[in-house]
Amino acid sequence: MFRRRRKLTIAERVRDFFWPRAGWQRSSRYVFHRVARIPGTPYDLAAGFACGAAVSFTPFVGLHFVLAAILAFVIRANVVAAAIGTVIGNPWTFPFIWIWIYKLGHWMGAGSPDDTPRPDFTELFGHIMDATLSLDLAYLAQTAWPVWWPMLLGSIPTTVAAWIAFYWPLKTLVTTYQDRRIRHRVQWLDDRPPVPPDQHNRPGT
User: Fold this and answer.
1) What is the C-alpha separation between 136 and 146, in angstroms, rounded?
2) Residue 22 in this model has a pLDDT that exceeds 70
3) Which of 9, 107, 159, 165 is surrounded by the fewest CB atoms within 10 Å?
4) How far is CA 170 from CA 45, 70, 163, in A?
């Protein structure tokens, strides 16, 4: 139902990822309908989406899909909804998320934010990926860890708060959406014209 007649090119997909052509409001509504139409209970869908949204507030960049799926599986939520929920973490929100959890982690005791200047998070995560693949433990210990540790510490209460903030409103919305669809379906069945009696006796009916 939601498939496009013409497939988007790679350039169009990249552009829509950074700035949806339909606008943020319509894009958010589209995401909600994608989640609400997935088979499952309101808990399954809301908890799954909340898992994806919550892990977006962690510094495990590149592992959000995996972590969201694992968390959804553990709490018996919908894994597909969890994957969709990771859209909360995107190029527009990541800078604010990273700065927030970094400062919160320092405030919680992981050093003082005045010890070092604010890092370039995009460059940092790129170097962390390269250092991990090349097993450059010196870089990870000396440069990445002093920044990554405060972010990890600050992400713990943030993910909990984010899960709750997304779960409860979305559960209410999905419940209302599913109830409305059921009522419309029942009304459609009730409004159908009755089948003439002679058609019941026709061959093949």
Assistant:
1) 15
2) no
3) 9
4) 8, 20, 11
Residue that has been written with the tokens 């419309």 in this structure: 184
Which residues make Cβ contacts (< 8 Å) with residue 191, sequence separation at least 6? Answer: none
- Model confidence at 64, in pLDDT bands (50, 70, 90)? very high
Written as six digits, the tokens of 190 are 């009730």
Give me the residue label for tokens 């026709």. Answer: 202
Given a contact cutoff of 8 angstroms between Cβ atoms, the answer to whether 68 and 85 are in contact is: yes
Mean pLDDT in the chain? 76
Question: Cβ of 134: how many Cβ atoms within 10 Å?
Answer: 9
Helix then strand then coil, in percent of the chain rounded to 5, is 70, 0, 30
Contact 49, 85 (CB under 8 A): yes
Confidence of residue 140 (pLDDT cuts 50, 70, 90): low
Distance, first Cα to last Cα, the chain: 30
Asked if pLDDT for residue 163 goes beyond 70, the answer is yes
- pLDDT > 90: what percent of the chain? 34
Type of residue at 97 = I
Give the predicted TM-score (pTM) of the model.
0.70
Nearest-5° Cα angle at 78, 8 to 157: 100
